Amino acid sequence: MDTIKDMYQKAEAERESKIVPSAFSVALWKHKGEEGALIPLLQAAQTQYSYIPESAIHRISAVTDIPASEIYGVVTFYTQFKLTPPGKYIIRVCDGTACHVNGSMTILNVITGILDVEVDETTKDGLFTLQPVACLGCCSLAPVMMIGDETYGRLNPGTIKNILKAYSENESNN
Ligand code: FES
User: Which of 11, 23, 49, 162 is 20 to 30 A off residue 101, Cα-Cα?
Assistant: First the structure.
Protein backbone atom coordinates (compact mmCIF):
# COMPACT_ATOMS: atom_id res chain seq x y z
CA MET A 1 0.00 0.00 0.00
CA ASP A 2 1.29 3.46 -0.90
CA THR A 3 2.35 5.77 1.89
CA ILE A 4 1.34 9.44 1.78
CA LYS A 5 4.89 10.22 0.67
CA ASP A 6 4.62 7.70 -2.23
CA MET A 7 1.28 9.15 -3.25
CA TYR A 8 2.73 12.67 -3.15
CA GLN A 9 5.74 11.65 -5.26
CA LYS A 10 3.49 9.93 -7.83
CA ALA A 11 1.29 13.01 -8.03
CA GLU A 12 4.36 15.22 -8.49
CA ALA A 13 5.78 12.94 -11.20
CA GLU A 14 2.44 12.96 -12.98
CA ARG A 15 2.21 16.75 -12.76
CA GLU A 16 5.74 17.18 -14.08
CA SER A 17 5.11 14.78 -16.97
CA LYS A 18 2.27 17.04 -18.07
CA ILE A 19 4.34 20.22 -18.14
CA VAL A 20 5.06 21.11 -21.74
CA PRO A 21 8.38 22.95 -22.08
CA SER A 22 8.23 26.25 -23.93
CA ALA A 23 9.70 26.53 -27.41
CA PHE A 24 12.40 28.77 -25.94
CA SER A 25 13.35 26.12 -23.34
CA VAL A 26 13.50 23.50 -26.08
CA ALA A 27 15.76 25.79 -28.12
CA LEU A 28 18.06 26.24 -25.10
CA TRP A 29 18.45 22.46 -24.74
CA LYS A 30 18.85 21.98 -28.47
CA HIS A 31 21.56 24.62 -28.91
CA LYS A 32 23.40 24.14 -25.60
CA GLY A 33 27.13 24.58 -26.16
CA GLU A 34 26.67 24.95 -29.92
CA GLU A 35 28.71 27.54 -31.81
CA GLY A 36 26.68 30.23 -33.56
CA ALA A 37 23.62 29.52 -31.42
CA LEU A 38 23.17 33.08 -30.19
CA ILE A 39 20.96 34.45 -32.98
CA PRO A 40 18.65 31.39 -33.14
CA LEU A 41 18.27 31.53 -29.36
CA LEU A 42 17.48 35.24 -29.41
CA GLN A 43 14.95 34.61 -32.19
CA ALA A 44 13.38 31.82 -30.13
CA ALA A 45 13.12 34.14 -27.10
CA GLN A 46 11.68 36.95 -29.23
CA THR A 47 9.08 34.57 -30.70
CA GLN A 48 8.19 33.20 -27.27
CA TYR A 49 7.85 36.50 -25.39
CA SER A 50 7.48 39.05 -28.24
CA TYR A 51 10.57 40.72 -26.78
CA ILE A 52 13.81 39.65 -25.10
CA PRO A 53 13.33 39.63 -21.34
CA GLU A 54 16.36 40.02 -19.07
CA SER A 55 15.81 36.48 -17.76
CA ALA A 56 16.11 35.12 -21.31
CA ILE A 57 19.45 36.90 -21.77
CA HIS A 58 20.78 35.26 -18.62
CA ARG A 59 19.53 31.82 -19.66
CA ILE A 60 21.13 32.24 -23.08
CA SER A 61 24.34 33.40 -21.44
CA ALA A 62 24.35 30.26 -19.27
CA VAL A 63 24.06 27.82 -22.20
CA THR A 64 26.36 29.67 -24.63
CA ASP A 65 28.99 30.98 -22.19
CA ILE A 66 28.63 34.37 -23.85
CA PRO A 67 28.63 37.19 -21.27
CA ALA A 68 25.23 38.87 -20.81
CA SER A 69 26.79 42.26 -21.64
CA GLU A 70 27.85 40.92 -25.03
CA ILE A 71 24.36 39.51 -25.67
CA TYR A 72 22.85 42.91 -24.83
CA GLY A 73 25.17 44.40 -27.45
CA VAL A 74 23.86 41.99 -30.09
CA VAL A 75 20.22 42.58 -29.08
CA THR A 76 20.56 46.33 -29.38
CA PHE A 77 22.40 46.03 -32.71
CA TYR A 78 19.57 44.19 -34.50
CA THR A 79 16.28 46.04 -34.85
CA GLN A 80 14.36 42.75 -35.00
CA PHE A 81 15.05 42.27 -31.28
CA LYS A 82 13.19 44.29 -28.65
CA LEU A 83 14.13 44.77 -25.03
CA THR A 84 10.73 46.02 -23.93
CA PRO A 85 7.41 44.18 -24.09
CA PRO A 86 5.00 45.21 -26.86
CA GLY A 87 1.78 47.03 -26.11
CA LYS A 88 -1.48 45.19 -25.63
CA TYR A 89 -2.41 46.10 -29.22
CA ILE A 90 0.03 46.22 -32.12
CA ILE A 91 -1.00 48.84 -34.66
CA ARG A 92 0.37 47.83 -38.06
CA VAL A 93 0.19 50.65 -40.55
CA CYS A 94 0.66 49.43 -44.10
CA ASP A 95 3.25 51.27 -46.16
CA GLY A 96 3.02 49.05 -49.22
CA THR A 97 2.77 50.76 -52.61
CA ALA A 98 -1.03 51.10 -52.76
CA CYS A 99 -1.23 52.42 -49.21
CA HIS A 100 1.77 54.67 -49.69
CA VAL A 101 0.23 56.45 -52.68
CA ASN A 102 -3.02 56.73 -50.75
CA GLY A 103 -1.46 58.55 -47.82
CA SER A 104 -0.09 55.93 -45.41
CA MET A 105 2.51 58.43 -44.17
CA THR A 106 -0.25 60.84 -43.23
CA ILE A 107 -1.99 57.99 -41.41
CA LEU A 108 1.20 57.22 -39.52
CA ASN A 109 1.71 60.86 -38.59
CA VAL A 110 -1.85 61.19 -37.37
CA ILE A 111 -1.43 58.13 -35.14
CA THR A 112 1.89 59.31 -33.71
CA GLY A 113 0.23 62.65 -32.94
CA ILE A 114 -2.87 61.18 -31.29
CA LEU A 115 -1.03 58.57 -29.25
CA ASP A 116 2.14 60.58 -28.61
CA VAL A 117 4.24 57.62 -29.68
CA GLU A 118 7.04 57.14 -32.19
CA VAL A 119 7.30 54.40 -34.77
CA ASP A 120 8.35 51.05 -33.25
CA GLU A 121 7.60 52.35 -29.78
CA THR A 122 4.89 51.64 -27.23
CA THR A 123 2.57 54.17 -25.63
CA LYS A 124 3.26 55.09 -22.02
CA ASP A 125 0.09 53.29 -20.88
CA GLY A 126 1.33 50.10 -22.56
CA LEU A 127 -1.76 49.90 -24.75
CA PHE A 128 -0.40 50.38 -28.27
CA THR A 129 2.79 49.62 -30.18
CA LEU A 130 3.09 51.31 -33.55
CA GLN A 131 4.72 49.50 -36.47
CA PRO A 132 4.86 50.37 -40.16
CA VAL A 133 4.68 47.19 -42.23
CA ALA A 134 4.74 46.07 -45.85
CA CYS A 135 1.58 45.15 -47.77
CA LEU A 136 -1.14 43.68 -45.56
CA GLY A 137 -2.78 42.03 -48.55
CA CYS A 138 -5.93 44.12 -48.86
CA CYS A 139 -4.71 46.88 -51.20
CA SER A 140 -8.21 47.68 -52.49
CA LEU A 141 -8.91 49.11 -49.02
CA ALA A 142 -5.83 51.38 -49.02
CA PRO A 143 -4.77 53.02 -46.84
CA VAL A 144 -4.98 50.18 -44.34
CA MET A 145 -3.96 49.44 -40.79
CA MET A 146 -4.45 46.51 -38.46
CA ILE A 147 -4.95 46.72 -34.74
CA GLY A 148 -4.35 43.26 -33.35
CA ASP A 149 -6.30 40.99 -35.72
CA GLU A 150 -8.75 43.66 -36.88
CA THR A 151 -8.26 45.31 -40.26
CA TYR A 152 -9.32 48.90 -40.90
CA GLY A 153 -9.35 50.27 -44.43
CA ARG A 154 -10.00 53.47 -46.39
CA LEU A 155 -8.61 55.35 -43.43
CA ASN A 156 -8.59 59.09 -43.00
CA PRO A 157 -7.61 61.19 -40.00
CA GLY A 158 -11.21 61.28 -38.73
CA THR A 159 -11.77 57.53 -38.84
CA ILE A 160 -8.43 56.88 -37.16
CA LYS A 161 -9.31 59.18 -34.31
CA ASN A 162 -12.63 57.38 -33.78
CA ILE A 163 -11.07 53.92 -33.99
CA LEU A 164 -8.35 54.72 -31.44
CA LYS A 165 -10.84 56.44 -29.16
CA ALA A 166 -13.03 53.31 -29.21
CA TYR A 167 -10.07 51.16 -28.10
CA SER A 168 -9.13 53.55 -25.30
CA GLU A 169 -12.74 53.79 -24.10
CA ASN A 170 -13.13 50.04 -24.21
CA GLU A 171 -10.03 49.70 -22.05
CA SER A 172 -11.14 52.22 -19.47
CA ASN A 173 -14.53 50.43 -19.22
CA ASN A 174 -12.84 47.11 -18.47
S1 FES B 1 -0.26 48.06 -50.04
FE2 FES B 1 -1.37 48.29 -48.20
S3 FES B 1 -2.59 46.54 -48.14
FE4 FES B 1 -1.40 46.26 -49.91
Answer: 162
